[in-house]
Design brief:
This protein is an alpha+beta fold. The chain is 30% helix and 15% strand.
């Protein structure tokens, strides 16, 4: 059973066949699918699953904190199942590919006190941008 499915089962979340299909599609490293991509892959597993069910399930998973909603440059939102592991994102400015990265050091410590304007920091989201090997000029 996948890590996401185990976490959901541990929470007592009712795993219908539709919810299971969505969770299975989201499993893996560097998974950052759009809702339409999740739907297309879920249909391959469960042909009768509706787009509305996929959207509702994604919304529930985000609300539960089991997946992250990632927005980059006005493109379609992507869904990241690595909600419980500290990481940042590397985004291709060409094709929009997203990869999880784990830079060394504490991103919270990188912001000097003078730049905090009295805020108490609770988190940091850093997005690195560049061109992936497929989009880089040769």
């Amino acid at each position: 059973m996948s890590d996401l499915l185990e976490r959901l089962r541990g929470r007592g979340w009712r795993l219908t066949s539709q919810r299971r299909a969505v969770a299975e599609v989201l499993e893996g490293d560097h998974v950052h699918l759009t809702a339409d991509e999740v739907h297309a892959r879920a249909v391959a597993r469960l042909p009768e699953i509706s787009r509305a069910t996929v959207y509702n399930t994604l919304g529930e998973l985000v609300s539960l904190g089991e997946i992250l909603e990632v927005s980059t440059d006005g493109r379609a939102k992507r869904y990241d199942p690595n909600a419980h592991e500290a990481h940042q994102h590397l985004v291709c400015s060409g094709c929009g590919t997203v990869r999880d990265v784990r830079p060394e050091g504490d991103p919270m410590a990188a912001l000097p006190s003078a730049e905090r304007f009295g805020f108490t920091l609770t988190g940091a989201e850093i997005t690195y941008r560049g061109l992936c090997p497929d989009c880089s000029p040769a």
